[in-house]
Amino acid sequence: MGERGRPADLLDLLKNQAGLVLLGDPGAGKSTFLKFLALHAARGKSEDLGLGLRLPLLAPLAAYATRLYAEPGLHLQTFLAEQLAAQGVEVDAARLLAEGLGKGRMLILLDGLDEVADEKLRHKVAARVKDFFCAVQADGNKLVATSRIVGYAEARIEAEGLGEGTLVDFDDDEIEAFVTRWTAAVERAARGEGDAATFDAERERTGLLAAIRRDSGVGRLAANPLLLTILALMKRQGVELPERRAELYATYVRVLIHQWNLARSLSGEAVAGLDVGETLRVLAPLALWMQETSGARGMVTEEALQGELRRLFADEPDPAQAAARFLFDVRNETALLIDRGGKTFGFIHLTFQEYLAAVALVQTAQIELPPLVEALASRVGQPEWLEVIRLAVGDLARERPEAAGRVIEQLLERRPGPPGEAEIFAGLAALDIGRKGLPAASRERTVDALLSTLRDDGRVPAGVRARAGEVLADLGDPRPEVTTLAGMQFCEVPTGPFRMGSRKEDDPDSSPAERPQHDLDLAEPYQIGRFPVTVAQFAEYVERSGNQLGYQDALRGAANTPVVWVSWRGAIDFCRWLTEAWRKEGKLPENGQVRLPSEAEWEKAARGGLANNPAAARNYPWEGAFDPNRANCDATDIGRLSAVGCFPGGASPYGAEELSGNVWEWSRSVWGPENEPQYGYPYVAEDGREDLASPSRRVLRGGAFYFGRGGVRCAVRFWSAPVARDYDVGFRVVVSPFRSGL
User: Fewer CB within 10 Å, N side or C side of the chain?
Assistant: First the structure.
């Protein structure tokens, strides 16, 4: 993902910058991308990627953190030289690394900042990475670091020349492309080149895509690269694809252990005592111990691991021998628990540690629920435990859906952790379980709790409210005023004078693009949308009108967020269609219309008339000074569009919400030559000439989620060409003439 939410190719980002911090959810492909870079560079093919000829060095930041804890003065370059030596370099590794850095030929790949569990140590590691990057980038070296999204904000790496991107989920086209290439590669490996392999690959491809498309739950799983790979492997094994994540992980682990038993049987060794249940009996508590011991780092020393295994095999005649045998078998046959080098062990992916730890927690609820509820409640709000407690409830729901519902409801009653975190956890757990696996009453209770959290700007921080809105969108936002055209709500704006623009000389927060202050009097009352038009409402328009050309980007956002990627002309088409539709339905009189607001109408709706604020016009829709809790802007630090309704405290005097921040909004007013823009970028016409004076440019209002306090004032204005579409531009509508009942 590129700048400000724009989709971008990772290699393009890396080619154009000295470094990149790559963020992503578990299984998004962060580590795979680093290995891809390392493999190409090691084969002398990094030039094919546009990165020049480079020597790669891939190293885990968690391992550096472990060394740094014991040796606080250890430089990152020293650690990297040791890693280079450990990877089989026969020459002087320190000298080779120094020469490579001096010539600007190194490709430094640092994996897993989030796996440094201790926050203070994570800050220290991040600072060392920053210092190292600043020292080596001038010579032409490149650096890529990865981190899960959760945990990165607390230890951000910021430096000149170091970009930042977030891996997004696969879309439908990318899922199909992955499946096509994967099945072809597997069949070539199994059968070689030829018609038979091509035929079998197409059959596998068609079957896997049909299974993914048949079930929306499986489709959601397939958007994650790791889970899609697992799905492909399971489908090839003939396993029916489950809907829920916990079921998917359970099936995958069991298939893997079954293959382990099969491999041992083929080798002539006995398989007695190595059934799935017995293996999980050890792996689950072992994973829980590793989660408690190493957290998101996911690695423990061989000595500590052997000690815990001896404890788990305490009832065996020879616990040490049983522990050693178990570790040997798991490491060599299952591909679940692996040796990461340096006498440290970890699961092949942290996700499986988290799932098996969840299984161990669920085992505490075999007789009664309170121990599990207590275990989960004590971990709510701890980022490194979020996946574990979600999967625990999901695993419980596999056999006992009613019990899973009771656990969720009890956590909602207790509301453990920081404000809003329990509600978000409940929503995420409900998503994992799915509609079929969670009692309807528990799901409704969860949705109600998320709605309350989204609106609770007195108790819940803005960022948490935004997350609640995202989870609510995935569960299904029930608010008709947000998700349907018929439910759209409007606020009455009466006639009367109001003060437009600002006095810059008296206002240090003033933004350059504002009108001088003057008084206006709008003669006709009107009604303005309480919220911007949402993705769900625009999707309903697209479906009902049949106007589906060019709106793929607009419909990809969360259903309860403002629709973007809609041009001014597209917004006009929406208004014209809705006018006709509502006239036919009797919701509008013959002379009534839905349209875009003028600048004056928008600004009066935002700041109120002089009767509301006789001394001076409001700077913001709310009364008083700037408050980041009242608008999605740079100071709020959300960094993306938020669900409408997250900022009730930012409502205007007439009740319209989110007129400040979140998204720029089209108006019907023209930005004429007399109002030349004083900042921003000019529109470039198709012939390449800058269009600075065209009267066709239309005014934008409201600022957006990345603007500072001065950019979300009521008086701030900007412009765009009527055919332009962008990631931060949406719209809201007005209804005129005034009428009651809408």
Answer: C
In sequence order, what DSSP letters do the residues of 591-612 get, joined into one string?
T-EEEPPPHHHHHHHHH--TTT
Question: Distance (Å, rounded) from C-alpha 7 to C-alpha 161?
Answer: 19
- For residue 563, name the pLDDT band (cuts at 50, 70, 90): very high
Give the helix/strand (H/E) hosting 57. strand 55-60
Q: Provide the pLDDT for residue 332.
A: 61
Give the DSSP letter string of 224-293.
SHHHHHHHHHHHHTTPPPPSSHHHHHHHHHHHHHHHHHHHHHHTT---TT--HHHHHHHHHHHHHHHHHH
Lowest mean pLDDT segment, chosen from 202-211, 228-237, 462-471 = 228-237
User: Residue 694 — pLDDT band, cuts 50, 70, 90?
Assistant: low
Least trusted range by pLDDT, from 183-192, 412-421, 514-523, 551-560? 514-523
| Residue 86 CB coordination number (10 Å) | 13
Inter-CA distances, 695 with 70, 345, 548, 570, 673, Å: 67, 66, 28, 18, 7
User: Could you give the percent of the chain with pLDDT greater than 90?
Assistant: 54
Distance in angstroms (rounded) separating the CA atoms of residues 396 and 393: 5
Q: Which residue has the tokens 């809907």?
A: 243
Q: HEC states along 316-338?
A: CCCHHHHHHHHHHHHHHHHCCEE
pLDDT of residue 245: 79
CB distance 491 to 447 below 8 Å: no
Q: How far apart are CA 610 and CA 497, in angstroms?
A: 6
Strand partners, 142: 107
Q: Is the peptide bond before 60 cis (omega within 30 degrees of 0)?
A: no
Q: Exposed e or buried b for every residue in 465-493, given b needs 16+ CB within 10 A?
A: bbbbbbbbbebebebebbbebeebbbbbb
**Helix then strand then coil, % of the chain, to nearest 5:** 50, 15, 35
E strand or H helix that includes residue 501: none
Q: How confident is residue 591, by pLDDT bands cut at 50, 70 and 90?
A: confident
Tokens of 230: 């697992």
User: What is the DSSP code string of 134-160?
Assistant: HHHGGGT-EEEEEEESTTTGGG----T
**DSSP strands (E only) in 642-712:** 664-670, 683-684, 690-691, 698-701
Dihedral, 174, 179, 181, 184 alpha carbons, nearest 10:
-170
Q: Quick one: tokens of 135? A: 């020292």
Q: Which residues pair with 118 in a beta bridge?
A: none
Euclidean distance between CA atoms 298 and 501, whole angstroms: 56
Residue 609, token pair as written in the block: 């008339």
Enter the tokens of residue 197.
């392999």
Strands 496-500 and 518-522: what pairing? antiparallel
pLDDT of residue 615: 52
DSSP state of 240: P
Pairing mode, strands 55-60 and 106-111: parallel
Q: Do residues 46 and 52 lie in contact, with contact meaning Cβ atoms separated by under 8 Å?
A: yes
DSSP 388-420: HHHHHHHHHHHH-HHHHHHHHHHHHHH--SSTT
Distance between CA atoms of residues 630 and 627, nearest Å: 6
What angle, 0 to 180 degrees and rounded to 10, lies between the N-to-C axes of helices 370-377 and 401-414?
A: 50
Query: Which two three-digit tokens encode residue 667?
Result: 């108006």
What string of DSSP letters covers 346-389? Answer: EESSHHHHHHHHHHHHHGGGSS-SHHHHHHHHTTTT-GGGHHHH
Report how far residue 580's alpha carbon sits from residue 588's, in angstroms, rounded to the nearest whole number. 9
Give the highest mean pLDDT range of 358-367, 529-538, 586-595, 597-606. 529-538
In terms of C-beta density within 10 A (0-12 exposed, 13-18 middle, 19 or more buried), how is residue 430 classed?
buried
Q: Give the whole-angstrom CA distance, residue 274 versus residue 254.
A: 12
In angstroms, the CA 133 to CA 144 distance is: 10
Give the angle subtended at the CA of 351 by the CAs of 347 and 352, to the nearest 5°. Answer: 50
